[in-house]
Amino acid sequence: MIVCVCNRVSDRQIRERVQASPCALRDLRRELCVGTQCAKCLPTALDVMRESASEPNAVAISRVV
């Protein structure tokens, strides 16, 4: 599913990034450009990050957003 329509960022891309190493929402903004246009996707992106962090084999999510 596309989370950020403005920059065509999918939930898969967010999950892969979160599972690769700990990150915060600001890291997703910098690396994937999530929420850098209209920012309507930020709540959904944060939900995807939280879900990904709770999956088995996931790296802990940073508390800095």
Helices, strands, pairings?
Layout (H helix, E strand, L loop, with lengths): L1 E3 L4 E2 H10 L4 H8 L9 H13 L11
Antiparallel strand pairs: 1-2
Helix pairs in contact: 1-3
Report on the structure:
The chain has 65 residues and is mostly helical. 48% of the residues lie in helices and 8% in strands. The protein contains three helices and two strands, in the order ββααα. It has helices at 11-20, 25-32, 42-54; strands at residues 2-4, 9-10. The protein has a two-stranded antiparallel ribbon with strand order 1-2. Helix 1 (11-20) packs across helix 3 (42-54). The longest helix is centred in the C-terminal third of the chain and has 13 residues, at 42-54. The mean pLDDT is 87.
| Second CATH tier, the architecture | Orthogonal Bundle
Q: How many distinct folded domains? A: 1
Shape: globular
Ranges where pLDDT stays below 50 over 5 or more residues in a row are none
Number of separate strands: 2
Query: Which structural category fits the helices and strands?
Result: mainly alpha
Element order, helices and strands? EEHHH
Largest sheet: 2 strands, antiparallel
* CATH superfamily placement: BFD-like [2Fe-2S]-binding domain
TL;DR?
The protein is mostly helical.
